[in-house]
Amino acid sequence: MIVGVPREVKENENRVALVPSGVESLSAAGHTVLVEQNAGIGTGIADKSFSAAGAEVVETAAEVWRRSELICKVKEPLPLEWRNIRPTQTLFTYFHFAASRELTSAMLKSGATCIAYETVEGKRPGLLPLLTPMSEIAGKMAIQEAAKFLEKPMGGRGILLGGVPGVPAANVVILGGGVVGINAAKVAAGMGANVTIFDVDLDRLRYLDDVLPANVTTYFSNAAHIRELLPLADVVIGAVLIKGAKAPILVREADLKAMKPGSVIVDVAVDQGGCIETMHPTTHAIPIFTIDDVVHYGVANIPGAVPATSTYALTNATFPYLAAICDKGVKSALTEDAGLAKGLNIANGKVYLQEIAQQYSMDKGDTAAWLGQ
């Protein structure tokens, strides 16, 4: 199979979808790997490292797209890339279709097969193995960014997250106790903040109560409880995930008026539409905006800021699936791995993920029929 790795074009997206060790493995198995020139530069991987591993380094993205059967990326294709997509191609990347009808329509029109990292399932129920490593990084970074933007020169309240003896620590509210939430709680608690973490799953709250330190309080999530805590919060972390679907709105615009001036909201759920009504996607170049004196941070590719960590964390998870697709072919790989088949979102102009079909009132295709079962 011919695998193409274009350079990411999203603003400040410094990750790359394949590293030289993966190239070496695919090349040894008889596959051809095309890597766009400077695709790995943001991660610190030189073209010569890809070449030494067996890749063909090509000058332009257009050539990568034109020659490849399988395109492996990190983030969703942007409009400038859409014209390069062919019906015979498979795209393997993060898509987050629930956040963009425009992207969904473009991929349907392309006729390509779209396998989304974020909906591939593992062997245990609810496990999303290709989303987990980036959620771990995003959760930890959410607190790192919140602490920075709490500083007065950055527009925040001017308080230290962990406080000092004689001066209280900040109050951190985390909406969601999944992978993002628990990693955010670990970092915030480790810095000495007072942390409250919300979730609707009582078993998950019991687990969090067992494993997190004493300065973390668990709270059952509902609108009344969230409104109760918002006036006390210095930091709010949106950490909600519903697989493949748009995130529910948990903080309304009217709720901001009860919050402290200079408090900070970091919505990690923004790439699935966001759980804060006033949030919209931002970039690493311009990461924040302010509404009702509340600082909003909505960067949709948070791990892109730490590519020397996140590229390797991502490719450690994605490579076995990529190798399976290359070795067996797309349909055989999905047929043999039911979890990987859950990653099929769009193919041949049809939607194959129920959550997307439901959100956009579209008919859902039959995955088994598409696979020829």
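(ticket continues) Second input and output from the same batch:
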Amino acid sequence: MKVYVVIDTNVLVSALLSRHRDSATSIILANLFSETIVPLYNDEILNEYEEVLHRTKFHFPESEVRLILSAISEFGISADRIKCSENFPDPNDIIFYEVALSKEGSFLVTGNTKHFPKTPIVVTPAEFLEIINQK
């Protein structure tokens, strides 16, 4: 069964920085390539991924960044935002939450759950792995 997910940028960064292939973020990235999960995105999210993953402080190889962005576009679904009235400490996070609202049964996986409303769709990488392992 496919699981729909909006992947917060910090999860991608963490996966690329991790030296441990068994870390939750690395496993989520592997699930993207095995098509176990279906990423939801829009142009704003893709633009943020592009901008953050190209920051010089990370030194991510261009080939890895291209591979991830291509996989998200190829295996994912472009989705519209569903406006919400929630308050967010960082207005840039609203995009991720509103795209997650666009598909029933989807999740927003983030390392910063405090930045989002406390709802069942907002989960940590470890919680998300538990969810997909139960499906």
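Agent notes: DSSP finds six helices and five strands in the chain. The radius of gyration is 14 Å. Closing as not reproducible unless the customer responds.
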